[in-house]
Fold:
Amino acid sequence: MTSSQSQPLRGVVPPVCTPLDASGEVDTVSLTRHVEHLVDEGVHGLFALGSSSEVAFLTDRQREVVLRTVVEAVAGRVPVLAGVIDMTTPRVLVHAEAAREAGADALVATAPFYARTHPVEIAHHFRTVRSRGGLPLYAYDLPVSVHSKLSVALVRELAADGTLSGLKDSSGDEGSLRRLIVELGGRGGRADGPAPSFSILTGSELTVDTALLAGADGVVPGLGNVDPAGYVRLYDAVRGGDLDRAVEEQERLVELFGMVDAGPENEMGRNSSAIGAFKHALRLLGVFADGTTAAPQIQLGDAAIALVEQRLRGAGLLPAR
Structure:
């Protein structure tokens, strides 16, 4: 994948979970096994160092280990998008340099955060990262963590001038996503639009069918770590016009997604519960050696893990008892 690509990135691009051992260090053996698991199930790309990768919890050294392990394991079979998420432009540029040296195909960055930023500052941030990062750049719209919602007008501007190659929309604002799709050419494609190679990817696991029907190019599903084949089937069904099969697959994935609430709400945060559920699901599936999440997240207990296992059996990923 290069900055001159004529077609947008399409398909299922899971944000790769980061396996940790009991001491909190990156388990590169499990990570390599996980990459093989995802690629073998037919995904179209991998997003390393995203939210489901616990990027905000990893040290710079751990980030480098993760990215180099993923790139090496992929061996060019699918594009690797590298999260360079950090608070300010200079810090993002440091991560961008590391990603380029590791062999990533593209960068993924949020708007700056901690201090609130003006749209003019956000635009300057993305333009600087694109011009100095040396790789195609995807915006990550994540207002729940960044506290800035990327407007349709801003994304359209940065798409039209070539700053951005795509967007991962995790805003939860389905109306805004639909407006962006329309602004960039609509469901019929963007061949004559302002940004013909721009890729629009939804980050919502639960509404993939509707996003794809509206014209999104693909999905970046955290749950895709656990059931990549399910999301590939869903994507293929929509693209092939088999809407009944698409809805059936989406509804099965909605039920499976219930594992994210396995951890008791009065004892742990929802991020701890969701990431812990994904990791223990991968452990139960024989992909991860351990289900440890990074500090200060609270670990899932036995009762919560039993609920994760129940969801896996209900979705047909483990044999029914």
Q: What stands out?
A: The radius of gyration is 19 Å.
